[in-house]
């Protein structure tokens, strides 16, 4: 119950931001900036961080949704309730577009039970096979998203699981076979701890839990001419098989869809995804989001794949057809994310984040430049 309103001290604000900016984003691009404006914290979409494969900013806004939910959760540990107010019609500041304001009030409620998982949450790709989730675990993960009415989560089972495994494999294959997508992968990979520390973004290869020798091969295939040769010899098909096998050996696989392909739904979907992920962490489960399937489904729906080479265009077209055939219940809904859950050991190293000073800024001046 809200009992009073009071200003937030700078130390508390920075603590909230520091905890919340551990939130996940596609390829760890961290497409957000924050402004403290009087009595509110404004969340902005930093469009300079956009990836070329992202249609309608779906991935960026998913990440911003995970950040917003993390801010709400982190605030609760300081006795604060955060009200999220969507913003529409506000002018952008160059590449920065306002998304939401958060207003804080003193609150006597206990901290959100997911508070302690903000720091420990991570992506775990290496999972043990043949350890199914219990019905109670599945239900707990569904319940974690129930506060978001535009979001639906469907567990994938039996023959449907094989279909999702194939589709995820196709998505990963296309990423390695098309030069712009290949370049996007390498733009966000960090091959040494020093590289990761220098940028504080992207994916440290050490966090990917790759098989022995795979990191060295990935470094060699940074060269597109060499990657094309490797793909002609079956490398991209091998990537697809590996991704498919990971899906098949997961304890559980789910599809997260939203009512429509618009910013409001994508942000809400991101908030739901974060709560599900944190609940999985609280339950001691490993979690791995798989974005290639929804990304290329979006490409096919919007005919953005028309510029792809014929073979990759055909793969994506068949991906959309098979998804509709296998999951007619999706109907006109928008697939925003797929994810796998299981049992596994987290990576020894974690991806880095921008500092609070880099993320939290003062309000813009009349000229649109940050003061």
From TrEMBL:
SUPFAM superfamilies referenced in this protein's UniProt entry, alphabetically: FMN-dependent nitroreductase-like
Domain of life: Bacteria
GO molecular function, one term: oxidoreductase activity
Name of the featured protein: Nitroreductase family protein
Species of origin: Pseudobythopirellula maris
